[in-house]
Amino acid sequence: MFHHVGVYAYRPRALRAYAIWPVGPLEVLEGLEQLRFLEQGRNVLCVEVEAKGRQFWELNNPEDVPRIEAMMAEMAAQ
Questions:
Q1: CA-CA distances (angstroms) from residue 21 to 1, 35, 76?
Q2: Threshold 0.85, pTM exceeds
Q3: What pLDDT does residue 58 have?
Q4: Residue range 34-56: average pLDDT?
């Protein structure tokens, strides 16, 4: 089983292109902006990482911020 951990980096040129591409059916279905790149025939690099027992949290919504900030504070204190 895999858990998606997304760290995204885009070049300015790619973001300018992204802004003018139409939203495609895969992006609509899944709600993932990366799919717009794939639907336009662009490559998206994915790398498998070893979690080694680490716990990952997602930051997708404003209510996720306090949990992420608490985790970061805990990590900084170690």
A1: 32, 11, 40
A2: no
A3: 76
A4: 85
